[in-house]
Design goal:
The complex is a heterodimer of chains A (234) and B (108). By secondary structure, chain A is mainly alpha-helical. Chain A has helices at residues 7-36, 41-50, 54-66, 70-81, 84-91, 102-107, 111-117, 120-123, 129-157, 167-183, 188-204, 210-223, 225-230. Chain A has two domains: 7-164, no CATH class; 184-234, no CATH class. In chain A, helix 1 (7-36) runs parallel beside helix 9 (129-157). By secondary structure, chain B is mainly alpha-helical. Chain B has helices spanning 4-28, 36-57, 70-86, 89-107. In chain B, helix 3 packs antiparallel against helix 4. The longest helix of chain B has 25 residues, at 4-28. Chain B is extended, with a radius of gyration of 20 Å. Classes of the chains: A mainly alpha (234), B mainly alpha (108). At the A-B interface, helix 1, helix 2, helix 3, helix 4 and helix 5 of A face helix 1, helix 2, helix 3 and helix 4 of B.
């Protein structure tokens, strides 16, 4: 029988520790706000287990309490979560041999999980990468659900000022960005990502810039393909 | 209180999210070899996407109206300095978030 708690298991757990912090904080923030709008612990559990998309869950609270239409809700979700298409595209090869674990790994491919499974650094020396990807996905969702439920409980007991707590998400991405920046000599792709996003933000505004930015980044990287593929790292 | 409409909205949000997450794997994930172009994108996109996500998180910050994005700038700088210095993700996130919360709750 194969050992479950082997080295890969340990590595997967250690890799997810930063997300644990981020998800507990963000999840609790979500649970607290949800509770303050009159949706209890069951809603916190169901939404974090089934939707499992941080910023979209925060938005869902607004949509629900405003009684938004089904069409508007679907469109908002599409716009906000379209960035997940990118994650899928870059994981198609890595998740190829996931077998039975594949559907769950795809379902659970959040921003934070992606930030862990996309880096070669994290899987260096891992014996069973498929197991590592699966466990990272599973651990992260456990933290998220636990955080949301805990927040819901806390929100029903005490009132406190959570303003600014959502900065944890920004902080997480900043650290991943720095990690990636230091892991490669060629910063073209990182610079393209920031520059195109900033330009689109200025042109299209905060509510509509994400889709143009994704198209712009894809186009820019396509044009730069010959130059970037000459070297090993993007 | 009738919550069935809310449940419908949750169902829609979840279904759209799941569809988005599965789409690339359905289109490119067959038995065939992944097109080289997609493999290339898979290699270079992560760097660009993280940059995009940072901007996405900061999208509602205004640099022309009070407080001019200063809290976000300070907090991001704290995260960056902490991270380059200690390379401890947990410390960087906790430190930056704590400072940000103090600034927006007590200073501004």
């Amino acid at each position: 029988m194969k050992k479950v708690f082997d080295n890969d298991f340990k590595r997967a757990f250690l890799a997810t520790v930063p997300v644990f912090a981020g998800y507990m904080v963000l999840g609790m923030g979500f649970g607290v706000i949800l509770q303050s709008k009159g949706y209890g612990i069951l809603w916190a559990f169901a939404m974090s287990a089934y939707i499992y998309a941080g910023s979209m869950q925060y938005l869902a609270i607004d949509l629900m309490s405003a009684g938004a239409s089904v069409a508007a809700t679907a469109l908002t979700t599409l716009m906000v979560n379209a960035r997940h298409l990118f994650y899928g595209i870059s994981m198609v090869d890595k998740y190829k041999n996931m077998g039975k674990r594949k559907p769950y790994a795809i379902f659970a491919l959040t921003d934070e999980t992606y930030s862990l499974v996309c880096s070669e650094e994290n899987v260096r020396g891992i014996e069973n990468r498929e197991k590592f990807y699966f466990l990272v996905s599973l651990f992260n969702q456990c933290y998220w659900v636990a955080g949301c439920v805990l927040g819901s409980i806390i929100g029903s007991l005490v009132k406190f000022n959570t303003e600014g707590i959502d900065f944890a998400l920004t902080a997480l991405f900043v650290t991943v960005f720095i990690e990636q920046w230091c892991s490669t000599k060629n910063h073209t792709s990182a610079v393209v990502g920031v520059a195109v996003s900033l330009a689109c933000l200025l042109i299209f505004g905060p509510d509509n810039f994400l889709v143009p930015a994704m198209i712009g980044i894809t186009l820019a990287l396509t044009f730069l393909r010959r130059k970037l593929e000459g070297r090993e790292n993007g | 209180m009738d919550r069935s409409y809310d449940a419908l909205l949750v169902a829609v949000i979840g279904a759209v999210t799941i569809a988005i997450r599965f789409l690339p794997f359905i289109v490119f994930g067959g038995k065939r070899k992944t097109p080289e172009y997609v493999t290339y994108l898979g290699k270079v996109l992560p760097y660009a996407i993280m940059g995009m996500l940072v901007i996405y998180c900061l999208r509602n910050v205004s640099v022309v109206a009070y407080p001019f994005g200063i809290p976000e700038f300070i907090a991001c700088a704290v995260v960056a300095v902490l991270h380059i210095w200690k390379r401890n993700t947990l410390l960087s996130i906790a430190g930056g978030t704590a400072i940000y919360m103090v600034i927006v709750q007590m200073v501004i």
